[in-house]
Design goal:
The structure is a single chain. This protein is α+β, with helices and mostly antiparallel strands. It has one domain. The protein has 3 helices and 3 strands, in the order ααβββα. Strands 1-2-3 form a 3-stranded antiparallel β-sheet. It is globular. The termini are far apart.
């Protein structure tokens, strides 16, 4: 890892430590800063979409918090899952194709 990469990630960590955890007020900026930490100008420049609307047959519209096709999918939750839950979700996501 280069010094520049380390500095970007450190700035992101410092930013994250200041957050209160309010999804509606902080999630989109958090996503943008996450992409910046990994060297993109922002989420939009990386080809990602925030609050992507997915129409489900016979059901209400589902919103995907962050969608970067074939790269990243996230869902922000109010409750804090356990580390074991997060690991299980990550393992399942690794086996599921991300293209729609």
């Amino acid at each position: 890892m280069t010094n520049d990469q380390i500095e970007r990630l450190q700035r992101f960590i410092e930013y994250g430590q200041k957050l209160k955890g309010d999804e509606k007020g902080e999630a989109q900026v958090f996503c943008d800063r996450l992409f910046q930490a990994f060297g993109h100008a922002g989420y939009k420049e990386a080809g990602a979409t925030l609050e992507d609307r997915q129409q489900r047959k016979g059901k209400n519209v589902k919103f995907i918090d962050l969608l970067a096709p074939e790269e990243v999918r996230t869902a922000h939750t109010v409750t804090r899952p356990t580390l074991s839950t997060v690991r299980q979700q990550a393992a399942r996501a690794a086996m599921i194709p991300t293209s729609y």
